[in-house]
Amino acid sequence: MSGIVERGAAEIAREVNGGTISAIEVTEAALAQVDAVEARTGAFLTVLHELARKVAAGVDARVRGGERLPLAGVPLAVKDNMCLTGTRTTCGSKILEHWVAPYTATAVARMLAAGCVPIGKTNLDEFAMGSSCENSALGITRNPYDLERVPGGSSGGSAAAVAARETALALGSDTGGSIREPGAFCNLIGFKPTYGRVSRYGLIAFASSLDQIGPLARTVEDAALAYEAMSGHDPMDATSIDRPVEPAVTALREDLRGLRVGIVREFDTEKLGTELDAAYRRAYAELEKLGARMVDVSLPTADYGLATYYLIAPAECSSNLSRFDGVRYGLRVDAPDVQAMYERTRAAGFGPEVKRRILIGTHALSSGYYDAYYVRAQKARTLIARDFENAFADCDLIASPAASCPAFRFNAKSDPYSMYLMDYYTIPMSLAGLPALSVPCGWITPAGGTNPMPLGLQLCAPLFGEPLLLGAAHAYERATMYASRHAPQLGGEVRA
Amino acid sequence: MTQQYEAVIGIECHVELKTETKMFCGCPNEFGGEPNTKVCPVCLGLPGALPVPNARAIEHMLRAGLAFGAEIPAFSKFDRKNYFYPDMPKDYQISQYDMPLTIGGSVTYWLEDGEMRTCRLTRIHLEEDTGKSTHAGSGDGRIAGSDYSLVDFNRAGVPLMECVSEPDLRSAQEAVGYLESLRLTLLQLGVSDVRMEEGSLRCDANVSIRPAGSSQLGTKTEIKNMNSFRSVQRAIDSEIERQIGMVEAGERIVQETRGWDEVRGVTHPMRSKEQAHDYRYFPDPDLVPLEPATEAGLAEVRGSIPELPWQRFERFTAQYGIAPKPAAQLVGNPQLAAYFDRVATITGRPQASANLVLGDLSRLANETGVAVSESPATADFTAELVHLLEGRTINSKIGKDLLERMWRGEGSPRAIVEREGLAQTSDPDAIEAFVDAALAAHPQVAADFRAGKTNVAGFLVGQIMKASGGKADPALVKELLQKKLAAPS
Fold this sequence. Notes:
The complex is a heterodimer of chains A (496) and B (489).
Chain A: H1 9-18, H2 23-41, E1 44-47, H3 49-64, E2 75-79, H4 106-113, E3 117-122, H5 156-163, E4 169-174, H6 180-185, E5 189-192, E6 212-217, H7 220-230, E7 260-264, H8 274-289, E8 293-297, H9 305-320, H10 338-349, H11 352-365, H12 371-391, E9 397-401, H13 416-420, H14 427-432, E10 436-444, E11 453-460, H15 466-480
Parallel strand pairs in A: 2-3, 2-4, 7-8, 7-9
Antiparallel strand pairs in A: 1-3, 4-6, 5-6, 5-10, 9-11, 10-11
Helix pairs in contact in A: 2-3, 7-15, 9-11, 9-12
Chain B: E1 5-16, H1 55-67, E2 79-82, E3 92-95, E4 102-103, E5 106-110, E6 116-128, E7 132-136, E8 148-152, E9 159-165, H2 172-189, E10 201-211, E11 221-226, H3 229-248, E12 256-261, E13 266-272, E14 282-283, H4 295-303, H5 309-318, H6 324-331, H7 334-347, H8 350-368, H9 379-390, H10 396-407, H11 413-420, H12 428-441, H13 443-450, H14 457-467, H15 474-486
Parallel strand pairs in B: 11-12
Antiparallel strand pairs in B: 1-9, 1-10, 2-3, 2-14, 4-6, 5-6, 6-9, 7-8, 10-11, 12-13
Helix pairs in contact in B: 2-3, 5-6, 7-8, 7-9, 9-10, 12-14, 12-15, 14-15
């Protein structure tokens, strides 16, 4: 059965719809893989054995009944900040460690309606705040390509699950790079759609104006299938966009002829070191070889992205996380009065990074500081979005590194700022609400490391440019085949 | 209040809007019910749940705003007001900070003597209501000394309009006049039930005093916990008195929030300005900016606004000549006022119509528990009755009887009168025959009268009326009887 877990979503759906394999068989293979590797990857916070089997049986019944489902029987991992009825939904936090969701997030429901089988809920940096998964209060997730290294974050568990072949697809959420960076670290397609394309209903908010759900997959085609299944207007989310979703799977292409790809002048890869610089120059050359015309573009305000992001996101999170107060659900630490109960509950329930961001955000919104911090950050955000608009006047796509280095060792980024810098290349797109993805673009063996680690190329399109974005990534993936050059290092169970 | 001081009062009202569903979710917007039965992930503020605005509530806001002559800006937005409170599910309230749905406007109201006044509005904005806490074990329902608290979220997320007035009011009486006009207008517009006892209308008053004639504002206090218009009146009067007492004693008034104690009849300090929250307002990122309505949409809403209570009051008093008190009574009940208006229009006799509507008809409504406007005694039937009475076709006794029969559903009073020959007998010859017969039947009574016992005349009138089947014109009966008795027998 070990061959089954190597298959991608498109292939599984084809076979399950065609009756050559059942959703139950696929699910059992996925659960067996989870049992075999989970002790090393730590991708999941909850494995849903029973629910997976029940849902798989339902998919088989639907297929037997004549239905053809775009993701029939595809094992799915769900980041544990998305609600799924009856399952524990923790956000990787002690404050929600035992909270069971009484409803299902729209994106999750749509994936299930398309035939996906939920295998489990995956680890994340607490409340999606982090870039390595090390901020989870509930477990350690390891990079399947080197167990000494982080899987990236915050959707690290989702990335590790797909990389370790525990599932074919995963849902992640991206606020400043939280799908794209772990995608790059784990040799995957990590895709953040246009803000508003995928409903946030049931996604536990970190920063509402930035959060966006998207897929992690081993192929662009799989990511496109997942995108088509989950996107589209949702009346439960006032920020979801009521505009038809253009098909992505049929837009997949084999070359980049006629496309102009912008290289951002300010994203100078030389400062990343000679090896990474060479890797990205080669990636850009490969784009050109596929027929793209490379153009020099400028994002003059992109350098303010990090500062802007670290005002807006904490401001929103300081308000979004207020509800975790011990009154209605989640952790409560008793105290003689309600004020003391709030304080003790939140002191015990939140980890250091979450507290740091709540404090920054509370300060940024405070009377007397609001104009200097929050309002200025919003203005900067508008300027950054305008820079992209100007750049897209000269190009169809923008290419850049997805992260400033490959997956690093645990505890390597001990000061918060060096961790924040991980999202330097991904944050501007988030602030502008643009669709962007990371696609594998090479391997590098870091100094002191033994295993080659994957690198990710970030591609970004104008708003609603998903078909073009996925189409171009598909051409690059097909032409380079970087993803398949090395296998996860998990021991005998996993076949290369 | 002494001559030297003038009170300056502004009122903030919270009004629950009448909608099918809550402000940001599909839960029913209904008062009461078993605790926590009208809730969902959104109004409980569960992790991941998102708000979606209720279009009907926004329509209500525009209706109210336009009725008060407010400006409706092209853009509006929702903001978060952040503070921790156990009955507030998200620990922030979705409200509006610097871009409310309506700006300015005014409320026109009347005083007891019929004088019209105007109070400007600062703004009306839209927000969501909180849940309700119950504190158990303290004996008096207060949090102090309680063992535990229970929270009911049925009310959480109910659409709430906050209506802020300018400090244009100068007395408790004006404040109550303002509130009454505001309440009746919102009722008339159908945007709220405005029931103070159910909490769908709640108000706070900002009160300060200053030397009469001064244009500077004194330090204000905010008065809360007023549960009826009567307590608004009492609380403001008490607070004005307290502030004057302090100033006279050379003390400074502190800016603070004070609670009204209904039992003791005084206000007491709740929190000072220093203890006020920093609400950290910022635009709610879960909601997109609002473009409330197009010009055409606004014109449509404007066109659908009926005559407002204050306009009606002015018309009833000025045009119909109804006294302020009955006019206020009529305006206070929109259905009754409309009913009266129709009767008065048909008959052209507003005073008689008002007497009938506020008198016998309202009495019947009270006795039977059926609203006048809902009763079988339609305005058209009542207008017939007014005609019959005013034209002296029937007398008032038959009139009362006919009203009862209309109320019971017997239909047109004119038809009854015609069918049963109830028209008043005004023929002097016929009445004279009844008078003669009565005097002949009771010679002793007639003699008593002539001997000076004039109070027996009533008995004779009764006998004559009875003999006529109640139809004799009582005025004519009296006149003829007097004549006969005065004449020598």
